[in-house]
Amino acid sequence: GGPGAGWGYPQEPPAPAPYGSGAPTGAMPGYSRKRRRKDPLRRPLPPTEHSVPSPLRLERHGDHSYALRNTGATVLTGVRVNPVGLPRVVRNLPEDAVVRPGETVEFLMAPSSRSPLPKEIRVRWDGRAEEVPLPVPVEGRAMRKDTFW
């Protein structure tokens, strides 16, 4: 025979832990993913800056190569990217570029361990007083295990 009672094997299954004891149990009483209380302070979020249409779009052309594309119908002059918050390794950042409809202006932006890629860049052009945030595309990022910045 095998070990019996008294050897770490109880005769009956243990009783469930009382509610709130901190012990793991199956489903907690009174908890359901389907039921969620309405928060009276929860309100719909206002439109974000990204929801405002912009004639410029940031595209990724390679591991560290990016391009600002003019998707509008007019020529944009004085196009400049704010360098604040960008990685340390940035080359050919537009400062006073002219971008015709359908054309791009390219620049390099490489992350490092101390300065990662931002989630967005801020761009301004002549006729636009405030900066417009453009999301940095995630698609096409080459993540190699043997590459360290």
Notes on the structure:
Residues 18-27 have a biased composition (Low complexity). Residues 1-61 are annotated as: Disordered. The protein is mainly β and 149 residues long. It has a domain at 50-135: Sandwich (Immunoglobulin-like), CATH 2.60.40.10. It is 0% helix and 26% strand. The chain contains no helices and eight strands. The chain has strands spanning 56-60, 65-70, 76-81, 89-91, 97-99, 104-110, 120-124, 132-135. The strands form two sheets. The protein has a four-stranded antiparallel sheet with strand order 1-2-6-4, with no helix packed on it. The protein has a four-stranded antiparallel sheet with strand order 5-3-7-8, with no helix packed on it. Strand 7 and strand 8 (132-135) form a beta hairpin. The protein is elongated and about 80 Å long. It starts with 55 loop residues before the first strand and ends in a 14-residue tail after the last strand. Residues 141-149 have low confidence and may be disordered.
- CATH level-two architecture of the domain at 50-135: Sandwich
Helix content: under 10%
Which strand order does the major sheet show? 1-2-6-4
Q: By CATH's scheme, which homologous superfamily of the domain at 50-135 applies?
A: Immunoglobulins
* Net shape: elongated
* Arithmetic mean of pLDDT: 78
CATH topology of the domain at 50-135: Immunoglobulin-like
Number of helices: 0
List SSEs in N-to-C order.
EEEEEEEE
List low-confidence stretches. 141-149
In short:
By secondary structure, the chain is an all-beta fold.
Please outline the helices and strands.
Elements: E1 56-60, E2 65-70, E3 76-81, E4 89-91, E5 97-99, E6 104-110, E7 120-124, E8 132-135
Antiparallel strand pairs: 1-2, 2-6, 3-5, 3-7, 4-6, 7-8
